[in-house]
Automatic annotation (TrEMBL):
Pfam families: Thymidylate_kin. Residues 226-405 form the Thymidylate kinase-like domain. Belongs to the thymidylate kinase family. The keyword Mitochondrion applies. SUPFAM superfamilies: P-loop containing nucleoside triphosphate hydrolases. It comes from Poecilia formosa (Amazon molly). Its EC number is 2.7.4.14. This is UMP-CMP kinase 2, mitochondrial. It catalyses: dCMP + ATP = dCDP + ADP; CMP + ATP = CDP + ADP. It comes from the Eukaryota.
Length: 417
């Protein structure tokens, strides 16, 4: 067994497992010997006596390969597994230990399907960096035990499954920095460089980067970023501001990346977020050039990149977000800071009405904003928590002209235009 897998198994009992049930993680651990009363964790409670459960953890040493495999694995399992396998997201982590998160899936095999499922798992384990464990119920139905899948036929080492306390942080928070949110151009470029062979387009994206960047250069004219969920009126307002202020209008991701955006939107979070992070630095360079001649208006920038990434990485209610003031909400040290960031806020029903009347195709994340209220609330709250500069909220529900007048008041007050 690879060295990092051996280490993982040795530290089994310090790890916590989380399984997603109804968009909220349930936590459990394993112990070599059971202490106290055996209480089956609720994720096992619907499983029949003769059924088994399995967990699959992606254990690739290389994070780009690992993340892509984890992403593809869901599709593979969804198409191959028989109905009723109850496929769920799961993870394994050491509480409070940054970088300790491993992602995977949890499933159950009903008695009639067991040989089909075991064939699928055997094939997966033989060909891929995945660690499979199986879970079975004791005779009296009171206890679940876990053992490594490849050992289960020979002399298996069994661990007792026990419920675990809810950790201080949502598990995804442990691996968020430089996996979901990048705090330097170098970190984001590292990820894209590693993808060069599998996604040839990355070379063209990296080729758009300027040879040098100076985040400390102070622009001569104000730089105003307009942020908000889709259909809150960013395009409408940014175009009006450009005309009213005689400003230059830019956007992030910049126009020069549009040919490759769809390609990166189909990639797992690590690669997708690295693409958007790099896009911000290309826009920053364009801002630097234009802000020596006129005010600059920017349609989306860093707040969008970080807020969507943070809100997607965690699941469940807003309370699962990293706490206010946490490191993930800081501004990257090497990225140009705008003079003002205006966040357009809108009642969800009015936003839906505008989306419907616009009638354009929606991206997966836009669909999610529509259907998943918790996701929308997490994005909005993450926007508010990101600092350096923090957003100034502006109610976008009045007419387009009134919103423009309010935005101009804010800009004149803050940027002395
Ligand atoms: N203040 C307003 N009152 C009523 N309708 C508006 C207002 N502002 C914009 N709209 C309309 O709402 C729709 C969405 O606006 P817009 O395209 O400007 O939003 P957006 O935030 O740029 O969206 P996206 O991020 O998806 O590109 C458009 O049909 C637009 O005409
Ligand atoms: N600076 C940015 C801009 C956008 N994103 C991601 O794109 C999606 C929204 O883009 P629209 O063109 O529909 O406005 C959103 O889901 C973000 O994930 C980003 O990350 N950074």
């Amino acid at each position: 067994m690879a060295r990092h897998l051996k280490l993982l198994v040795q530290r089994w009992s310090s790890r916590v497992f989380s399984v997603e049930v109804d968009a909220a993680p349930r936590y459990f651990g394993v112990r070599e010997q059971l202490r106290g009363e055996p209480v089956p964790p609720d994720v096992f409670s619907e499983v029949q006596k003769q059924d088994r459960c399995y967990s699959l953890l992606v254990c690739s040493g290389d994070r780009v390969t690992g993340d892509r495999f984890h992403w593809e694995l869901r599709d593979r399992l969804q198409t191959q597994l028989p109905p009723g396998s109850g496929l769920r997201s799961m993870s394994s982590f050491i509480p409070d230990q940054k970088g300790s998160l491993l992602k995977g899936y949890f499933l159950q095999s009903q008695a009639g399907n067991s040989s089909l499922i075991e064939d699928i798992l055997t094939d997966l384990e033989q060909r891929n960096p995945v660690l499979v464990c199986s879970y079975s119920q004791s005779e009296d139905g009171q206890q679940w035990t876990q053992c490594l899948w490849y050992q289960s036929e020979e002399n298996p080492v069994r661990f007792c499954v026990v419920p675990s306390e809810t950790p201080k942080h949502h598990p995804s928070v442990l691996n968020m920095i430089n996996s979901d949110v990048f705090y330097s151009l170098e970190e984001a470029c590292d990820v894209l460089k590693q993808c060069g062979d599998i996604i040839p387009e990355t070379r063209s994206v990296l080729g758009m980067l300027p040879s040098s960047l100076d985040a400390r250069r102070k622009p001569d004219f104000p730089v105003i970023v307009i942020e908000g969920l889709d259909a809150t009126g960013k395009t409408t307002l940014t175009e009006s501001l450009r005309d009213s202020l005689g400003a230059t209008l830019l956007r992030s991701p910049p126009q020069c990346l549009s040919a490759w955006r769809g390609r990166f939107d189909r990639e797992p979070p690590l690669i997708r977020r690295a693409f958007y992070a790099v896009g911000n630095y290309i826009t920053a360079e364009q801002i630097n050039q234009e802000a020596s001649k006129s005010p600059v208006i920017v349609d989306r920038f860093w707040h969008s990149t970080a807020a969507y990434a943070i809100a997607t990485a965690v699941t469940g209610p807003v309370s699962n977000l990293p706490h206010e003031g946490a490191e993930v909400y800081r501004w990257p040290g090497d990225l140009l800071q705008p003079s003002l960031v205006i966040l357009l806020t809108l009642d969800p029903e009015e936003r839906k009405r505008r989306l419907r009347s616009r009638g354009l195709m929606k991206t997966d994340e836009e669909e999610e904003l529509d259907h998943n209220k918790l996701f929308r609330l997490r994005v909005e709250e993450a926007y508010r928590r990101i600092g350096g500069p923090a957003c100034t909220a502006l109610d976008a529900s009045p007419s387009a002209d009134l919103v423009l007048q309010q935005a101009l008041l804010l800009i004149r007050a803050k940027c002395h235009l």
